[in-house]
Amino acid sequence: MNKDTRLHPLFILFSLADTAKKLWPVLLIFLFKGAQNPNRILIIGGGVLFLFLMADVIKWRRFTYRMEADKLIIRHGLFMRDEKTIYFSRIHSVRVEQPLLQRLFGMAQLKIETPGGSAEADGVLPALTREAADQLRSMLMRQGKGAEPSGEAGDAEAEAREPREAGAAPLPGYAVRMTTGQLFVAALSTMNFGLVLAFFAGIISFADDIAKFIIPRSVFDKLLQFYETSVSGPMSILITVAGTLLLSWLLSTVLYIVKYYGFTAEQRDGDILITNGLFEKKMNIFKPERVQAIVVKEGLLRQALGYAEIEVRVLSADKKEALMLHPYVPVRQIPELLSRIIPGFDIGSVQHCAPRRAWWYYFRFRLLFLALAFLGLYWFQGPLAYWMLLLLPVLLLTGYLSFRDEGVGLQDRQLIVRNRIIARKTCYVLRPQIVALKLGHTYFQERKQLLSLTAHLLNGDSYSLTSLEERDLQEVWHWYRKRKGRV
């Protein structure tokens, strides 16, 4: 494929829909304001639509891509011509996504990620047929395997590949799928505040402006007055908080099911392919040797049930992106799952935990937060602040669990870091992927012979330990210094 190729003509429709999605608050206000003069709305709206349509047609004609021997070239731009050159040796992962509109027309978009690229993706082809997207994805990943990576990322990858080649190879065709029952239980056993906050933020950001045009001012004032008079006492506030938490939990359950519906992780031609999504179907593909770390997360409820979720951190454009390898798996099955999909990681256990004299370092910030919150609320609300003391048992419990669970482990080529804020996280990192290791201590830690540790990875992630024995973390330091023959 050495000639310029255009996207599918449906790119014009998708671009119009994307513009309407970005401008929907303005469009909604415009419709309500102009309801008294529909003819003017039709004339102005038709003119604006024609202008956007012409712009999208020009963008479609100017958007081309071309495959060459060692690179992919993408050219696009309405007024200014932009050209992106992506060398195959720099490609770390390729994603095929199908938002709802694209799925309705049997289309897909291809996102190509390289280290140091933009958070969205370094290269995006937004309108391809599903067959063309799959074919191009396979071609890019196949070409990427034949190209030698370069730079610090390439050196780390080449070194990280050694234990995988020496050990067991990935099992071709091996796949993991979630049943509907597993998905439902996984959704009920998690509380993803990130999904809930993102959902509410999208509504609240324009709710105030839209409410002025949809709800009459008198009705809005009466609703606000009713809320202020009804929610006045401590019991009413507790009921409101409990109702909000229940609503958030139910909403989190629904959003979780929508996000991970049809989840599949499989080995295909030596690559790892992860598929999930109900309305917006996403397909992520990456090479096993480019996995920076594996993170096993166990929430309080899931830990009691013996289940966890597995994330993989891959060097990509979005450095902080975590790909879900399995959202809900029995802990006892994790070693077998990883040995079949990502061999080279050994699911061992931590060898050194926090000593008893370090307990204060796991409670101090929690108690400081409670004290500041209590004083601030007491300043504005008086005795109502005493309800904040209900958080004390929760903060003491999470502090104790953090103290009990934090630890570090070493194996021949792997570092294990385990810590907890609410959920317990166990991170498995191969030594070549650690670009910096930092040991530190405060004056009081030095007197107690304690140290803190932070390990920085090539993709920008970092994993920390709060306060462990000095001799144990010095052992980690000497282990790291052996990298590439350093002593």
TrEMBL record:
Where does the UniProt annotation place the signal sequence?
Answer: none
UniProt keyword list: Membrane, Transmembrane, Transmembrane helix
**Lineage: superkingdom:** Bacteria
Where are the stretches annotated Disordered? Answer: 144-164
Q: Which InterPro entries match?
A: UCP026631, YdbS-like_PH
Q: The YdbS-like PH domain covers which part of the protein? A: 60-137, 261-336
TM segments? 41-58, 183-207, 237-258, 361-380, 386-403
- The protein here is known as PH domain-containing protein
To which species is this protein native?
A: Paenibacillus profundus
